[in-house]
Structures are given as structure tokens and as C-alpha cells.
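To: structure subgroup
Subject: Chain for Friday's discussion

All,

I'm putting the inputs and outputs inline so they're searchable in the archive.
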Amino acid sequence: MHFKSYINDKVVVFFNLVVILLGIFNSLLIVLRVDTTQSVAIIRNNTTLGLAGFERASSSALYQFLLIALLITIGNTVVSIRVHNIKRGVSLTVLGLTIVALVFLTIISTAILGLHR
């Protein structure tokens, strides 16, 4: 019965829509920008090491960002549905922090994908 009240809450549905659209946007951004023709790509940069801080792996390792985006989107939506019955404010907080996490993930994945072009 609490799922029906979750769907009828307009603010929660709007936040869920934003979360889902950000997850889809981030996933499409990653799928369309990963260049699998290159054998090696930079997947991480440790700025304290300078030029030696670039960690390399196969270019298919960049699909980890896609997995993280889907995990954040699906996991936090499920947590929000489960918590909404207990407290609406916590559900909105979870969805708001999910939006922030997906925006940061989009920025970071864009920066990393821009390194190997």
C-alpha cells in the first residue's frame, strides 16, 4: 500500500524522474564516448604523483562508470521507495543526494573520457 502513496507524491515522482533522466543521460554519454578501438585508456589520475599518476587499463574498463551510474540510480530509487513509508523527508533527501551524486559522476566521467581522446 505504501507504493501507491509513493507514486501519488508529486515531489517524489519529480525527483525520481530527474534521477532516472540523469542516469540515462550519464549512461548514454559513456556508451557514446568510449572509444574501444584504442587498446589502452587512462582510467584514473592521482594528481599528487604528477605525470606518473595516470593509471592505465583497457578501454573497456571505462564502462565501470556506466555500471556505477546504473547502480546509483536503481539502488537509491529502491532505498527511497522503502524509506518513504517511514519518513517522507528521508526519501526526498536520498533522492536529492542521488541527483548530486549523478551530477558529480557525469562531471568526472566526462573529464576522464576527455583524457583519452
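Points worth raising on Friday:
The CA atoms of residues 6 and 84 lie 7 Å apart.
The chain has one domain: 2-36+63-115.

D.
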